[in-house]
């Protein structure tokens, strides 16, 4: 069971109330259900955590917890309201929710967080019900004004019409009457066949501001009196600041002061250029601490040793060991995935103004209430005295689920009396990022005499994210994120999954990374499935079908992909196609990668074909965009992603040493969608899971060489 599944058990009932908005108008407040919050059934328990507000001008505002970080949340969320409210998409304006865990909890995770591909699945029903409730109240208000039956009226594009008499009133003209009406006991929702917006391509509502420069990201804010700080943290992870002479920095024009904290030094200036020049002039001395001799090789060797321990049993079906021992053919393999940083286009930053009785933060973060709590703790202020202004995020991928950069910024801002914008350079962001953990996994699988799979075992070894980040769901020593997808969607009569928790040295922080456990175990499982198919002499598509009896949607995805990808078309020498499948975040997706490998071992990914069944697509264009973005993000990691340590320091810094995919390296991307009619699944992390195994399986088809460790090493693929 995944972290997402553990936390999501939302009530079927969505609690709604109608009332008067401040300044006039109608407000529909409602409680999004939560797996970590008891259902609120008593009037006194009612604490709304989302709002639809319609003012007297007919303008519609939606206050909701998901933040926009490139995933089109600010297009999909208003579409859910607009569909049932019978208005156009551009008539709904999104307003940022304040930082408040209780009032603005994610309906699937129980606290205020954007992540886990939960925004659409969690809000799919509640937002439509709120829109439908508002529409019913407005129609009833019009019927009262006209002394007619509500059934004789209909809503259309922000107005209520009475076709028989030709009368009509705008929503703005009806809100004051609607405020006094009781909430309907039954709130029917549209059937999918009646959707006008959902399922129809729509321009992204946040695109114009990003094109014309009006969009405000965290790094853009400029409160009055602002000064800018460039920060340097201890190069050795876990180290602390020793001594630093501020004089060289103070000699730089525009520099105001040098600030210190336990593990960092920062130069404050009028602008970033002066701050960075000042920082470069400093020669701080560091107390390197216990990690001064830590290297990647040492940590991997320690993980290898740990992986040989029995571990904790997570899942058992049949007798896998007996099936392995009696098998006709078997494979025993070690698969490894590296530490990975997030490399968001917008490096982490936080602007803080600490006053005697209040504190304000300006930033883009996936957990605004956690940022608020951190600031309150460090300043000694009550949480109600801390205000978080959450802005658009220039890339999250899990990095902004953390508050380490908030802590560093608040510690510095406490030392000055003006707003301080603390910006991490690309190098600092990479070298001090939280990291997707290294995994060193043992897998075994077996076939009988007929080539039918009989057993599958998977022992996962790595650090735990949940033990630190969400201890409430870290139970019995098992990190359910680390072991999710440990056998994929496949059904094996004999299955065994174990987990060995092995933490890196203090200061190296295992953290979420756009799919996390799925991206790690998906690579390994799909690699092993491909190995089994090759060992049995069976086509990789045909080999999977008998293992997917419980997943007919997966079978449909694979059948479509086999046709769309041109799987059977002939290829040249050292060209190959590879297949990978995933079921994650309630979405089924599969990819075929077509690659070529030259004689020097260089891999060129030529084409990636994706078929996805995410249920009902709110905006089909966003489905394609999410698949493309996730594919390129995951392909970058498969080809280049590797954070390594030497003498306790991260060796990578900017994009010259922590490579990302370049335009001329981008393959042709073809994306196809199956509309199963099911409720929407998550999408932002799906193709990040499948691309690495699809590519390495294609490399095997092209070269006969099996890759079990990422990133892909071209040296091992040279023709000899």
From TrEMBL:
Segments forming domain Aldehyde oxidase/xanthine dehydrogenase a/b hammerhead: 212-290
One Pfam short name: MoCoBD_2
Gene Ontology terms for molecular function: oxidoreductase activity
Protein name (record): Xanthine dehydrogenase family protein molybdopterin-binding subunit
Organism: Pseudomonas monteilii
């Amino acid at each position: 069971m995944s972290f997402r599944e553990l936390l999501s058990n939302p009530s079927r009932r969505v609690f709604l109330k109608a009332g008067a908005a401040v300044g006039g108008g109608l407000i529909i407040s409602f409680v999004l259900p939560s797996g970590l919050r008891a259902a609120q059934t008593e009037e006194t328990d009612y604490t709304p955590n989302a709002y639809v507000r319609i003012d007297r001008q007919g303008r519609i505002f939606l206050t909701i917890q998901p933040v926009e970080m490139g995933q089109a949340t600010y297009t999909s969320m208003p579409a859910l309201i607009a569909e049932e409210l019978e208005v156009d998409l551009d008539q709904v304006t999104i307003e940022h929710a304040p930082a408040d865990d209780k009032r603005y909890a994610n309906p699937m995770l129980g606290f205020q967080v954007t992540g886990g591909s939960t925004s659409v699945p969690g809000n799919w029903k509640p937002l439509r019900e709120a829109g439908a409730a508002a529409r019913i109240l407005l129609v009833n208000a019009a019927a009262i004004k006209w002394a007619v039956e509500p059934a004789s009226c209909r809503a259309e594009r922000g107005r209520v019409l009475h076709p028989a008499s030709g009368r009509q009133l705008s929503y703005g003209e009806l809100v004051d009457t609607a405020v006094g009406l009781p909430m309907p006991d039954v709130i029917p929702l549209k059937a999918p066949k009646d959707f006008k917006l959902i399922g129809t391509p729509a321009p992204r509502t946040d695109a114009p501001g990003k094109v014309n420069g009006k969009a405000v990201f965290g790094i853009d804010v400029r409160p009055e009196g602002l000064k800018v700080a460039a920060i340097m943290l201890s190069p050795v992870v876990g180290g602390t600041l020793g001594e630093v002479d501020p004089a060289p920095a103070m000699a730089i024009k525009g520099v105001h002061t040098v600030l210190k904290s336990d593990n960092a030094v920062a130069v404050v200036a009028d602008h970033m250029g002066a701050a960075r020049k000042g920082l470069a002039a400093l020669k701080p001395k560091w107390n390197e601490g216990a990690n001064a001799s830590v290297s990647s090789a040492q940590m991997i060797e320690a993980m290898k040793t740990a992986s040989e321990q029995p571990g904790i049993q997570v899942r058992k079906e049949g007798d896998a060991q007996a099936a392995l021992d009696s098998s006709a053919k078997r494979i025993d393999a070690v698969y490894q995935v590296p530490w990975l940083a997030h490399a968001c286009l917008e490096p982490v930053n936080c602007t803080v103004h600490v006053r005697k009785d209040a504190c304000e933060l300006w930033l883009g973060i996936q957990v605004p209430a956690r940022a608020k709590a951190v600031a309150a703790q460090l300043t000694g202020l009550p949480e109600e005295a801390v205000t978080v202004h959450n802005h658009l995020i220039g890339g999250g991928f899990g990095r902004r689920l953390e508050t380490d950069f908030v802590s560093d910024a608040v510690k510095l801002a406490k030392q000055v009396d003006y707003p301080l914008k603390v910006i991490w350079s690309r190098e600092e962001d990479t070298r001090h990022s939280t990291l997707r953990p290294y995994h060193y996994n043992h897998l075994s699988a077996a076939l009988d005499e007929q080539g039918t799979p009989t057993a599958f075992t998977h022992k996962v070894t790595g650090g735990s994210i949940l033990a630190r980040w969400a201890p409430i769901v870290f139970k019995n020593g098992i990190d359910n994120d680390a072991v999710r997808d440990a056998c994929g969607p496949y059904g094996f009569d004999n299955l065994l999954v174990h987990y060995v928790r092995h933490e890196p040295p203090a200061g190296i922080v295992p953290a979420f990374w756009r799919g996390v456990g799925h991206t790690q175990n998906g690579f390994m499982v799909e690699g092993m499935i491909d190995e089994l198919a090759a060992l049995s002499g069976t086509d990789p598509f045909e080999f999977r079908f008998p293992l997917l009896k419980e997943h007919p949607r997966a079978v449909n995805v694979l059948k479509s992909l086999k046709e769309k990808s041109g799987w059977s078309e002939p290829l040249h020498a050292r060209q190959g196609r590879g297949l990978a499948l995933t079921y994650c975040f309630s979405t089924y997706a599969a990819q075929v990668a077509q690659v070529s490998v030259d004689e020097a071992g260089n891999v060129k990914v030529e084409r990636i074909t994706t078929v996805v069944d995410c249920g009902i697509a709110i905006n089909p264009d966003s489905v394609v965009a999410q698949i493309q973005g996730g594919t390129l993000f995951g392909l970058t990691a498969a080809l280049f992603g590797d954070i390594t340590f030497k003498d306790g320091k991260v060796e990578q810094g900017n994009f010259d040493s922590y490579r990302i995919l370049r335009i001329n390296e981008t393959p042709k991307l073809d994306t196809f969608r199956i509309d199963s009619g099911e409720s929407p699944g998550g999408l932002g992390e799906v193709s990040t899971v499948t691309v690495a195994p699809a590519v390495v399986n294609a490399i095997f088809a092209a070269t006969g060489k099996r890759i079990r460790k990422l990133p892909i090493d071209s040296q091992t693929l040279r023709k000899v």
